[in-house]
Amino acid sequence: MEQGQQHNTPLVSIIAVNFRQTELTVDFLESIKEIHYDAVEVFLVDNGCLEDKSDEFRTHYAGLEVMVSPENLGFAGGNNLAINQARGKYVLLINNDTLVPKHFLEPMINIMEAHAEVGIVSPKIYYADSPKTLQYAGINSINRFTGRGISEAKQRIDDGSFDYTAATYFAHGACMLIRTEVFEQVGLLSEDYFLYYEELDFCEAVRAGGWKIMYTSQSHIYHRESSSIGKTNPLKTYYMFRNRWLFMRNWYRGFSYYLFVLYFLTVGVPWHLFKHWRKGERAHMQAIWQGVKWHFKPTKTTVDERFA
């Protein structure tokens, strides 16, 4: 595929992060190579790299810009590394464990071009191992009691009920087309999270900056969920519990926040500890405790400091 700036066609900077998943990343690059939108530059951040495989990756995508980081910078840090180098009018943050149709970019770009107030667009997302089952079709809001996103579409068979384009509360971190001015205004992804909830934090910052976030069914992708660390890895458990509280602490105040903390510590945490205890999953129990204990130590940055 020839790359470059088409006449009157905005350049899109496509950014993906690899963490020791060569085969998945190769599949992703082969998928991206087939898209029909030519005005792209593609960055691959090789995060926590043990062996430089830049040449191997480039054989699967001509012109690929590989950025090697021996340190594992996490989802946010890896993406931020490339965002700082992106030259496009739009930046597409997309997981390396996704597969894309040939025309998935154009509908999202068209929305951006037609509506200057839109800062982020996410497509419909299907599970790759069950391609008629939805993972994402917009998220309404965060439940202030549980700290979880409310998604009517997740794990539902797609029956056409979500075939529309509309404002949504949160984009999905697996695929977000972002206007470059958004980063200039609100900053990059918060690296305090490392894994999980960082896209929710970013979306809150984007809305606070006055931008709209859109979901569209005119575009779709397929996602191999939790491929980076596995669906049952205790590390995922740790960051999910740690970051749910961090997100709520950063964005909610007063009664809503304290109600969440009460629920989280008296219902959410005990229930999940019991669930893992019944299964003999002591590593997950330890991960939950460590995620909770993290909040009783000094932390780096709050959202208030980012907007000071």
Structural descriptors:
single chain; alpha/beta; 10 helices; globular; disordered N terminus
Secondary structure elements and their pairing?
Elements: E1 12-18, H1 22-33, E2 40-47, H2 54-58, E3 65-69, H3 74-83, E4 90-94, E5 98-99, H4 105-114, E6 118-127, E7 130-136, E8 165-167, E9 175-179, H5 180-186, H6 198-208, E10 212-223, H7 234-251, H8 254-278, H9 282-293, H10 303-306
Helix pairs in contact: 6-7, 7-8, 7-9, 8-9
Morphology: globular
Biggest sheet statistics: 10 strands, mixed
Please state the average pLDDT score.
91
How many strand elements?
10
Order of helices and strands: EHEHEHEEHEEEEHHEHHHH
The rounded Rg comes to 19 Å
The number of helical segments is 10
Helical fraction? 25-40%
Summarize the structure in words.
- With 308 residues, this protein is α/β, with parallel strands linked by helices.
- It has 10 helices and 10 strands.
- The protein has helices spanning 22-33, 54-58, 74-83, 105-114, 180-186, 198-208, 234-251, 254-278, 282-293, 303-306; strands spanning 12-18, 40-47, 65-69, 90-94, 98-99, 118-127, 130-136, 165-167, 175-179, 212-223.
- Strands 1, 2, 3, 4, 5, 6, 7, 8, 9 and 10 form a 10-stranded mixed sheet that branches.
- Helix 7 runs antiparallel to helix 8 and helix 7 runs parallel beside helix 9.
- The longest helix has 25 residues, at 254-278.
- Mean pLDDT is 91; it is low at 1-7 and 300-308.
